[in-house]
Amino acid sequence: MVRLLAGMAIGLCVGCGLMPAEQASIRVSAETLPWTDMSRYRTYRWWLPPPEPSRRVSEREALIDWYVRNGVDRELAARGYVPDTAGAPDFVVRYTVAQYEGETSSFQDYLQYRAEGGSKGMGDAFMGYEVGTLEITITDVATRRVAWRATASAIIEGDAKGKRIDPAVREMMVRLPANARAAQ
Question: At 37, which CATH number?
Answer without folding.
Answer: 3.30.160.670
